[in-house]
Amino acid sequence: MASQTPRPHARTTLAGSWRMTTLLAWRNLAHDRVRLVVTLVGIVFSVVLMGMQTGLLVGFTRTTAGLVEHARADLWVVPKGTLDVDLGGPLDERRRYQAMAVPGVARVEPYFINFARWHKPGGGTESIQLVGFPIDGTLAGPWQLVEGQREDLRRPDAVIVDRLYARKLGVERIGDTVEINGRRARVVGFTQGVRTFTQSPYVFATLANVRHFVGAPERTVGYLLIALQPGADAAQVEADIEARIPEVEVYQAAAFAKSSSDYWLYTTGAGFSLVISALLGLVVGVVIVAQTLYASTIDRLPEYATLKAMGAPASYLYRIIVTQAAIGAAVGYGVGLAIVEVLVWASRNASAAPILPPWLAGALGLLTLAMCIAAAVISIRKVMSIDPVGVFR
Amino acid sequence: MTAALAHRPAEPVLAARDIRHVYGSGATAFEAVRGVSFEIHRGEVVLLLGPSGSGKTTLLQILGGLLRPTHGTLSLLGETISGLSLERLAALRLQHFGFVFQAYNLFPTLTAAGNVEVALDLVGMRGRAARQRAQQLLEDVGLGDRGHHYPAQLSGGQRQRVAIARALAADPAVVLADEPTAALDSHSGANVVSLFRRLADDGRAIVIVTHDSRILDRGDRIVEMEDGRVVDPAHRRHP
């Protein structure tokens, strides 16, 4: 009988190769197809639930801060105590001149947001949020305009609404007329995808028209938007304005966007609910994967004991189990992500649309991998307890 | 130590001195092996006999480095190994021992060649070299044309021969077999025992635990155990 002593590869140890442990892991998974399907369904379910909930969270975050993020202001001057852009109190426009006098300020524009009643042409009313800005200004206005022009707002009673809410507001095309707080208004344009978290659609108009619709006094504004001079110290300007105008607070744009998101997502509990749902998906995934992986490990205990008896190090056995979990994670994530992408696409025109940016898709992948590896811990503990002497009993 | 183990021909491959093993402690303590001394040299086939509970399986576990004796010393190729850690014993098993089990213990999801390649992988042989070596080992046990068959597609005798090919992957000095013919018909059993004989003739030491009376005349020595002791220390020579 020919005998040839194996020579370990110079660059490897006696711990065995990833190729072989991956082969064993895949064969373990594929051998029991029903269990494989159950495992993958659990992972896919978890990925979809986590993806949709976190996607909604991202979507809501962007929606709640949309007005702030789409303005080109460096600083927001808000009435003291204001936490959210949708719920600003009135300010006297004369504060604008005080702000303009602060060193480092290049431009100050008024901005006015106010709830109002929209009377649909066919009857019925809806709550809306009027967004007023100076038509000659440069810091704010409608974005994602798909029909009409910003300049069209110069016309008397002109408003721009979003296509997502056109049916809700009972309008179809440019030229449709409605009433806002009993005053005539005419649609002169449409945006596409300007969502609102409050479900009261944003309706853009000039500052003068908004005052007209809500019957506000001449000098009433909601916010002052500030553009800084190049090189100005934002924190210093912020402090100077607060020192000069005691009844206001000044936020840098990113801070006000965050404050607005936090207000809706966490003080209302909406964000908490989404996070809890996402965590629930994670827990369900861990439980299903742990259960099926453990059952697979139990089935394979004699094989693991044989490997141990042969002299395989513990790390070799752990690798098989972790690779099983990682293969499940990769396949489940791929399928789950495809489903999430389809759902995101299908809900792109909904008033509450999830968003799945690349960083979230990546984070979801890492979370899925972590979930599956965490689920493997119980199986690893079981394999650790295997006594190889059992193979001779 | 593993790399340094070099056999001097006059020495036994495996030597057990006054081995004792106690399971449990206190009132429930049970001494399964009671002062067994045992040697085996290259080229020898030793049959380990005894009724259930006689201690032969415990002794086999100790001889294979799977169980540390509570007393006594075990030497492999002249080096004492009974005091080594479990990790070091595992590394020694990988390089110097081959195991053959009554139930074959093959991986059902791998082919015959794949089962052998797992053992080769553990000792660092991979890729084409491993495939060629696995094929060679399967040919050595008469299964050169069965490499792509899964265990479920093989007979009991063929499975046991695959298990033997796997046990030989690291070219071990010692092969320990637990009831290797118990589940086989007489023809398959005879083939397997012939295979062990050839392994011994190639210079390996073979220890076979068996109840199979059909193979009692195929060993060089019979060591019979009862109540944890070797009852007849005299070596019985068979033609």
Write a structural description.
The complex is a heterodimer of chains A (393) and B (239). By secondary structure, chain A is an alpha+beta fold. Chain A has 2 domains: 18-63 and 270-392, no CATH class; 81-246, no CATH class. Helix content of chain A is 49%, strand content 18%. In chain A, the strands form 2 sheets. In chain A, strands 1, 3, 4, 5, 6, 7, 8, 9, 11 and 12 form a 10-stranded mixed sheet that branches. A two-stranded antiparallel sheet of chain A has the order 2-10. In chain A, a hairpin with a 5-residue loop joins strand 3 and strand 4 (125-133). Chain A starts with 17 loop residues before the first helix and ends in a 9-residue tail after the last helix. By secondary structure, chain B is of the alpha/beta class. Chain B has one domain (41-67, 90-230): 3-Layer(aba) Sandwich (Rossmann fold). A 6-stranded mixed sheet of chain B has the order 6-7-8-3-9-10, with helices on both faces. A 4-stranded antiparallel sheet of chain B has the order 2-1-4-5, covered by helices on one side. In chain B, helix 3 packs across helix 4 (127-140) and helix 4 packs across helix 5 (156-167). Chain B starts with 13 loop residues before the first strand and ends in a 9-residue tail after the last strand.
Main beta sheet of chain A, described?
Answer: 10 strands, mixed
Q: Can you tell me the number of structural domains of chain A?
A: 2
Question: Could you tell me how far the N terminus lies from the C terminus of chain A, measured between alpha carbons in angstroms?
Answer: 30 Å
**Low-pLDDT runs of chain A:** 2-14
Please report the number of helical segments of chain A: 12
Helix content of chain B: 25-40%
